[in-house]
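Q: Got a minute? One more chain.
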Amino acid sequence: MNCEPIHGQFQRALPIATLVLVDMRRAHIPNGLIRNKAYTVVQNCRQALSLARHVGWPVIHIRNVVTAGTSVNGSITGFEPTATEAVLERKKHSCYSSLYFTDLIRQTSGNIVIMGFFGAGGVLATIADAVQTSDYVTLLWDASLDEQSAPIFSGSALSLFQRYTNLRFSVRTTAEWLSLVQGYYSDNAQRFRPLES
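A: Always. Here it is, folded:
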């Protein structure tokens, strides 16, 4: 399969990318004020994962090594890794702190789509580390929870950040991303059936 970009509006996000789900663990579904936000993140991640599996993209599940083995931190229902999906553990905020992550991304296309429960600054740390490997990151912001990175990836701060850094990334909503991926496969006569809601 050709891993180079051939569709302009995707920059380097298609025709294949690796979907990266970060800490999709039950313990990240909190009570209280951010419960609704967490629910939205889970629903958007569920849609993105369903599409990635449907079109055959590689999927990597990354979890925090400190809490990965605890029973309270099992996978959220529907996010259990399949036999063909990688499961990695990270020691720091960035996905690149996970052993073998860089190698797995290099084996595909160098394009990653990230989402999930990052913790403090994990989104920014992952995008910054992608510079070292020349990978291209697409962040699904409404499928991610990282309160520390939130001010950078919203509104006018995002355009300034993109303009004055050499970080290679794009920020999309899940709905935009789903539409673009489905459109790409439909336009290129790939066998594609609509996802069930």
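A: The chain has one domain: 13-187.
Q: Perfect, thanks.
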